Amino acid sequence: MKITLVKKVLADGSSCRKCIDVMGKLEQSGYIERIDEIVSADEKDPDSPGMKLAREHNVDRAPFFIVQEAGQPSRVYTVYYQFVREEMEP
After folding, report:
1. Backbone angles phi, psi at 49, to 5 degrees
2. C-alpha 23: how far from chain center
3. Considering its fold, how many domains does the chain have in total?
4. If residue 21 lies in a helix (H) or strand (E), which one and from where to where?
5. Domain that holds residue 6
6. What is the CATH number for 75?
């Protein structure tokens, strides 16, 4: 399983407030160690890796998680607690 976290970078270069909050929760819980990749969706760069992933998965908010397993469709989570409940805790 591969887990990707997409964080938003605002036009002024700062991280979005919700992204900072989710990163704190991931670090505090220890779940950050299970995240394989963290990419940025830069508002100033529509070709940034995170913006491309957002378009590919039809997501219009950040942060979001993409969970990939071989032979299965990707699962996308835009709600932190749902992601934790369904992917981290089972």
Report:
1. -55, -40
2. 10
3. 1
4. helix 17-29
5. 2-88
6. 3.40.30
For 42-85, what is each residue's pLDDT tens digit?
999 999 999 999 999 999 999 999 999 999 999 999 999 999 99
Would you state the structure tokens that stand for residue 85, as one six-digit string? 């409940």
Percent of the chain with pLDDT over 90: 98
C-alpha closest to that of 60 among 76, 81, 74: 76
pLDDT of 90 higher than 90: no
Tokens of 72: 């299965």
Query: What is the pTM assigned to this prediction?
Result: 0.94
Backbone dihedral region of 71: left (phi > 0), alpha (psi from -120 to 50 degrees) or beta?
left
- Determine how many CB atoms are found less than 10 A away from the CB of residue 60: 8
